[in-house]
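Fold this complex.
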Amino acid sequence: MHRFANPAQFNRLADVILPWAIGAMVLLFGAGLYYAFWASPPDYQQGESVRVMYIHVPAAWLAMFTYMVTAAASFTALVWRHPLALLAGKAAAPAGAVFTALALLTGMLWGKPMWGTFWVWDGRLTSVLVLFFLYLGYMALWQAIDDEEKAGRAASILALVGVVNIPIIKFSVDWWSTLHQPASVIRLDGPTIDGSMLTPLLLMAGAYQAYFVVVFLWRMKLEINRRKLSVARQAMMHAPVGAE
Amino acid sequence: MNQSNTPSHASIFTAIVRRDVSLAWSQGGGSLLALGFFLIAVSLFPFGVGPAPQVLARIAPGVIWVVALLAAVISLDRLYQADFEDGSLDDLMVSPLGTLGIVTAKVLAHWLSTTLPLALLAPALAVLVNLPDGAYGTLFISLIIGTPALSLIGSVGAALTVAVRRGGVLMLLLILPLYVPTLIFGVGAVDAVISLTDPMPHLALLGATTLVATVVGLLASAAALKLAME
Amino acid sequence: MAEFFDMGGYALYVWTAYGVSAAALVWLAVSTRKQLKESAEAVESARARRKGRV
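Structure:
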């Protein structure tokens, strides 16, 4: 558990992973976009607009995945007082907020031609909007409290409370009968989506996942640097006069 | 009262509840303000959407619920902050009740003093927005089931922001999204009755929300308070 | 080619969705990268200053 508690060790590990993650991200985006635009057919009902799915669904998956990363990091930070876990949550949250905003925006742009409206107040859309607010609250709480350690732990408590929202998002389309279509990829009896559309979807999901790894590791390194700087600043302030 | 030197847990608990309830109703307490806000905010809607009875009847359950929720939330910023600032929270937390016991007592007091009165006042205010006749009972029941969740979830936000200077707006940002399920099921029950369908599923889900809020809300509030007191 | 950009009449929605997504993802990555670089430089100069003092 505490093997990666040492920031230097973490930075070394991140530097090993990063080139591979960047490579995977470029390849997956290339392949995914090729399939999304050229090597997949238009939907027999939705026509060409189905191509929005290849960025909408990955953004929504990653929005939830990132929240689970933040929540797991928060749990680790609160229970085991793992020093890097607090920073992991802080590093993941901005990416999660972006994914959530993109899931909502692309969903609206897909909904307009398909449903005839940008927005409906159904369970799925509402709970994803709540997810976005939770990300905002998490980041705002980090900002609001001066003591970094306390800020992080307060934000972590909020992140854990917000986990309640994740199953609501997942099952909202089954509980409420709404315009939003039910799950078609992750379901017990196998995907109901056609293979020609599943390929670009999974490639793009992989690309988003790789993108998350890259941005997450960069932000972890950023947060570690920030922490170093604040420690150095504090040491400077508390240094006895005349120490220079 | 059997031991005069060491008061029992129950007597400390009731003492805190009593103290908080009477403080909330005394001069400068938040309960009357919350009720006043409830009254005024509801009576603004006929000016905003026009006095047409059908329009008001259509939005009545939502107006009552949303304004009750806002009234609850504006009364929350003093839930822990007053005791935090004058240092009495320190004393309370070292009492034999423990942090979880204190939180439970204070949330119960908040419900009794502020959010429950909102529920009691709601049927009277529903007249102002022309709630359809058959829906008063369900509105009342849904608020009775749902208002504990408002106090419980609100307590988490209040505890998380207790040490934040001018944390009121931040508290709103944290709490309001978490109120969404309570609001949906609460309004859903009343709307179901108005559209002549069964409100029970909504009330059951509302009850489930309150139960989850009880467990999660109390534990998270206690953790947040401990953190703030370190 | 024009047909491709037309997206079966859904051009506005499809291209806006892809445009917004690309802009947001690039913005997050680039700003993260920039902040990381600045913070690394700040850490370096703090270290150099400390060494210089000792």
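Residues 226 and 232 of chain A are 10 Å apart (CA to CA).
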